[in-house]
Amino acid sequence: MTERWEPTDRQREFLARPEYEVLYGGAKYGLKTDALLAWLIMRREEFPGSKGLFIRRMIAEVTKQGAAWERIQQMLGNRVKYNQAEHKVMFPNRSVQEFGHCKDEDDKMHYQGAQYDDVCFDQVEQFTDTQYSFILGACRTSLINPARALDGRAIEPGIRCTGNPGDVGHD
């Protein structure tokens, strides 16, 4: 079942930001994850063949009840295909949304050589500076054949983050 999702004013402002890197901060339960999911859904649907990464520090934070993996399924319903084992959402237009994690410092190496049109860090304050910086390197588009909107515009890389006060990455 597809859930009808309507953004709050703050979420709407976040979704409209044109900058390369945007942070949506605030207290717990501020609906920040929903804003990230809405942004990446808009990108996957607008740019056929695009690829994104949604990342948390631990995979359990992605897959537990009520978390991002369940929420995206509620938001998209059966409009897409889900690969539960690999935590990927495949859109009818060939776009792919991956859900990943980076628990330990060495886990960042899983993203070496990867290429995503956009990366969403949920709870960015939980990542170390080196994890964040390394994974940022994976946010780039193909120079030869970038994903394009129906009007011909090429996708531009983008980073979106949510965060709460405190933790290792607060500064």
Question: What descriptors fit this protein?
Answer:
26% helix, alpha/beta, 171 residues, seven-stranded mixed beta sheet
Q: Main sheet: which strands, in order across?
A: 1-7-6-2-5-4-3
Give the biggest beta sheet. Answer: 7 strands, mixed
Uncertain regions: pLDDT < 50 for 5+ in a row?
none
Proportion of helical residues = 25-40%
- Estimate the global geometry from the Cα principal axes: globular
Measure the end-to-end span. Answer: 40 Å
**Strand element count:** 7
Fold and architecture overview:
- There is one protein chain.
- This protein is α/β, with parallel strands linked by helices and about 170 residues long.
- The protein is built from five helices and seven strands, in the order H-E-H-E-H-H-E-E-E-E-H-E.
- It is globular, with a radius of gyration of 15 Å.
- It starts with 8 loop residues before the first helix and ends in an 8-residue tail after the last strand.
- The mean pLDDT is about 90.
TL;DR of this structure?
This protein is 26% helix and 19% strand. The chain is of the alpha/beta class and 171 residues long. Helix 2 crosses helix 4 (68-76).
List the SSEs and their pairings.
Blueprint: H1 9-16, E1 21-25, H2 32-46, E2 51-56, H3 60-63, H4 68-76, E3 81-83, E4 88-90, E5 96-101, E6 118-121, H5 129-136, E7 158-163
Parallel strand pairs: 1-7, 2-5, 2-6, 6-7
Antiparallel strand pairs: 3-4, 4-5
Helix pairs in contact: 1-2, 2-4
